[in-house]
């Protein structure tokens, strides 16, 4: 999403200004207009990297007093509807991060979790997620924070994105280079077979979390996720690039 009237994607969504209106009274944060958000975007320059805490703050402002919808369980029910305003903000933030990468050309590190359900040995399944701001099915994961090991980052991302607890027995699948949007990114993928909980999408950043049989994957699987699953199943040799 491109913020209207802005030559480059936005940096920050102007949450401080919205919060001030809220404190002043007489303003419903849940009814923030598109013009208001575009004006806030236009006032910023790009020097930003997204944080999950900021995303939660935006959610709380956009829908005060209303908890995020939850999915019905591992395979049950329809996914919760994505809130259009929050999805637009996340999309704007994602574009802004990509532009920041083109300018700063950082060296970054990410993690993904290939979570396997082996409860039925004859039909193993993999957990995949859909985001509100980018299409396709992906593995859960995200960036590595300062002071975290790769495994610690993967455990945190899985807990935050789908509510699962990763137990022991984590195995590395590989580390892959991803040179995109100007960044030198490297992604570590871990195979997870020992986990607990029920996958739950928050309806904001993650709009759906489902297990799929490894021989019946979705048609709109992201290409990189498809390559990692082919490597996991032994159909192709392991590569070096994402």
What can be said about this structure in brief?
This protein has helices at residues 15-24, 34-42, 52-62, 84-104, 150-162, 223-232; strands spanning 107-117, 125-131, 137-138, 141-143, 165-166, 171-180, 183-192, 195-196, 206-213.
Number of helices: 6
Oligomeric form: single chain
Mean pLDDT: 75
Q: What's the shape?
A: globular
CATH superfamily of the largest domain: Nucleoside Triphosphate Pyrophosphohydrolase
- Residues in β-strands, percent: 15-25%
Counting DSSP E segments of at least 2 residues, the number of strands comes to 9
CATH architecture of the largest domain: Alpha-Beta Complex
**H-E string:** HHHHEEEEHEEEEEH
> Biggest sheet: strands, sense, closure?
7 strands, mixed
SS content category: alpha+beta
Residue stretches low in confidence (pLDDT < 50, at least 5 long) are 1-50, 54-77
CATH topology of the largest domain: Nucleoside Triphosphate Pyrophosphohydrolase
- Summed up, the domain count is 2
- Helical content (DSSP H or I, runs of 4+): 25-40%
Give me the Rg, rounded: 19 Å
C-alpha termini separation: 25 Å
Top-tier CATH class of the largest domain: Alpha Beta
């Amino acid at each position: 999403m491109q913020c209207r009237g802005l030559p480059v994607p936005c940096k920050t969504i102007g949450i401080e200004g919205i919060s001030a209106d809220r404190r002043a009274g007489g303003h419903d944060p849940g009814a923030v207009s598109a013009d208001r958000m575009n004006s806030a975007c236009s006032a910023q320059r790009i020097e930003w990297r997204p944080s999950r805490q900021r995303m939660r703050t935006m959610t709380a402002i956009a829908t005060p007093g209303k908890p995020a919808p939850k999915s019905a369980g591992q395979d049950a029910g329809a996914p919760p509807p994505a809130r259009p305003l929050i999805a637009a903000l996340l999309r704007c933030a994602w574009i802004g991060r990509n532009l920041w990468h083109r300018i700063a050309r950082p060296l970054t590190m990410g993690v993904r979790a290939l979570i396997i359900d082996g409860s039925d040995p004859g039909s193993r399944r993999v957990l995949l997620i859909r985001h509100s701001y980018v299409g396709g099915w992906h593995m859960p994961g995200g960036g590595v924070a300062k002071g975290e090991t790769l495994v610690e980052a993967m455990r945190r991302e899985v807990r935050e994105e789908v509510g699962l607890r990763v137990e022991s027995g984590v195995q590395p699948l590989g580390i892959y280079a991803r040179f995109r949007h100007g960044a030198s990114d490297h992604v570590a993928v871990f195979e997870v077979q020992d986990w607990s909980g029920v996958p739950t999408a928050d309806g904001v950043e993650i709009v759906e979390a489902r297990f799929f049989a490894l021989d019946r994957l979705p048609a709109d699987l992201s290409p990189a996720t498809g390559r990692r699953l082919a490597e996991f199943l032994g159909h192709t040799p392991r590569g070096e690039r994402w």
